[in-house]
Write a structure and sequence with these properties.
With about 300 residues, the chain is of the alpha+beta class. Helices cover about 25% and strands about 25% of the residues. Helix 7 links the parallel strand 7 and strand 8.
Length: about 300
Amino acid sequence: MPPGLKKIFFETYAEVPEQFSKIYKVNKSTKAKETDYGLGAFGTWEPRTSELSEVAYDTLSPGLEREYVHKAFTKGFMIGRELYDDEQYNQINKFPKAMARSGRAFVETEAAKPLIHAFSDGKSSGSTDVNIYDGKTLISDKHPLVDNSSKTGTNLVTGELSDANLKIALQCMRETIDEAGNLIQASAKKLVVPPALEFTAREILNSTQTAGTELNNVNSVKGALDLVVYDYIGAAAGGSDTAWFIIDPSLCELNFFWRVKPEFKWDEDFDTFVAKYRGYMRFSYGVSDWRGIVGSSGGAAAAKAASTKTA
């Protein structure tokens, strides 16, 4: 391989810190696919009615299957012998750089899809892959419970990102229930926003007083959450400039599996002298549980923006 092209590819690929790994659990896989199984939850403990009462035994109900099938992705370029001879790398160096940046952007774009489609309706959008394992979108107020048919779980809040709405989301997170309807004491640690909400988020999280008001109240959420600005969930990347999420990393089950991390190889055709360079990677991603993430599509902000454009 011409000196340096492989090094250029990997240096370029790693020149910007990953964003998706700040919210995903990133794993390695040695199989064609990974399968995750959910379980139900134990109900309330039962009191003994006498000293001879037997233990009330229970079993965990089997949950739904979550499957991660690794897909392979490739990209390549070709360089003729004369270009290699004459350019002396002034232009050739740009080829692996461009391919590495394209690959990096592709991984981030794919990983962002569960959040981009978090509020979508598969039927209305025409997509068949926006619903998660329980048949609902990732963010919903109608998640069915395996061991409690009278309740549903919710991780949906409404409204634009504001101090008041963030506190509602934090409460929603604290009220997360398991498959039997029991509180599990979830606690958010991260606020995830698109670039359009970065400065709003910083004001809410870092202001000394309550953001967005004229009151002199102490900011009760100051320092409570780490801010993650995820470029690839914004409108410029096909997402939304108003949607926002909070995450409890200990519970959040956004999973990403590397089957084969990006690799860069080459070969030369003996008769034509054309050198071929290719990149290859294989991965999968998805959701194993809706718990640990609460979100809002930011409807109020969207409506405000729409009315402003109309005017």
